[in-house]
Write a structure and sequence with these properties.
With 249 residues, the protein is an alpha/beta fold. It folds into two domains: 1-63; 88-221, Aldolase class I (TIM Barrel, Alpha-Beta Barrel), CATH 3.20.20.70. The protein has an eight-stranded parallel beta barrel with strand order 1-2-3-4-5-6-7-8, surrounded by six helices. The chain contains eleven helices and eight strands. Strand 1, helix 1 (16-29) and strand 2 (36-40) form a beta-alpha-beta unit. The chain starts with a strand and ends with a helix. The radius of gyration is 17 Å and the shape is globular. 42% of the residues lie in helices and 15% in strands. The protein binds phosphoenolpyruvate (PEP). Phosphoenolpyruvate (PEP) binds next to strand 8. Phosphoenolpyruvate (PEP) binds at residues 9, 166, 171-172, 209-212, 230-234.
Length: 249
């Protein structure tokens, strides 16, 4: 069985004082959970996360990265810069980046490659909008999104990526995909990876994201192809985040 992984996506939230309390609370409650966890913090707080979390059971990472290596790209942050803060994970293609920053699946794929080249693990997000969901297009949409990444990433490196299925209509809305619905998508994503690298597909942790909370996490993570969660709102309170971490079966 694949080990579970719970990753917090803090989005554009936090302050040095609030972060210190949240991280201390998470570290204090981690013992014995048997689940790996990480927090993806806003870039200005990476040094704080590194200083507080180094040597703990909690890994850290970033929420976005530039596809470019270096140079005149004002405001961008390169993968090498993130690696300097010992990030383990970098979220690529979160639906908020796709929607508010017009990120295409091709750009997301380039970002994932930049993350891999810098020695970190991309968490590639895919998910359908409400309109696409209602039109019954979830599977073709996520297949196309993942397909763009699989077209660019060396199949041998697929052992080093994670995928997160995040139906856009479930993010921050309190609505969540049913476990069966999410399982069907996860199984399809795994099969898609398997066509490129069967070993990577078998070992790959595919996370679910979209209003995962302590009270629905157990059922979702009990599905055979749901290997953990990418958590937004509930990652901002230690009690809720730990509730999800401890909810695994
Ligand atoms: C997310 O932003 O990745 C997310 C899943 O958010 P939430 O848990 O708040 O729905």
């Amino acid at each position: 069985m694949r080990p579970k992984l719970v990753v917090g996506n803090w989005k554009m939230n936090g302050s040095q004082v609030a972060n210190a309390n949240l991280l201390a609370g998470i570290m204090a409650g981690m013992n014995g959970s048997g689940v790996s966890c990480a927090v993806c913090v806003p870039a200005p707080y990476l040094a704080q996360a590194q200083a507080m979390l180094a040597g703990s059971l909690v890994a850290w990472g970033a929420q976005d990265v530039s596809a470019r290596q270096a140079g005149a790209f004002t405001g961008e942050i390169s993968a090498d810069m993130l690696a300097e803060f010992a990030c383990r994970y970098v979220i690529c293609g979160h639906s908020e980046r796709r929607a508010y920053h017009c990120e295409s699946s091709e750009l997301v794929a380039k970002k994932a490659v930049a993350v891999l080249n810098a020695g970190m693990t991309p968490i590639i997000c895919v998910g359908e909008t409400l309109a696409q969901h209602e039109a019954g297009e979830a599977l073709p949409v996520v297949t196309a999104q993942l397909g763009a990444a699989l077209a660019l990433i060396d199949p041998a490196l697929l052992t080093r990526i994670l995928i997160s299925y995040e139906p856009v209509w479930a993010i921050g809305t309190g609505k969540t995909a049913t476990p069966a619905m999410a399982q069907a998508v996860h199984a399809q994503l795994r099969a898609q990876v398997a066509a490129k690298n069967a070993v990577a597909a078998e070992d790959m942790q595919i996370l679910y994201g979209g209003s995962m909370k302590p009270d629905n996490a157990r059922q979702l993570m009990a599905q055979p192809d749901i290997d953990g969660g990418l958590i937004g709102g509930a990652a901002l309170k230690a009690e809720d985040f730990l509730g999800i971490i401890h909810a695994h079966v």
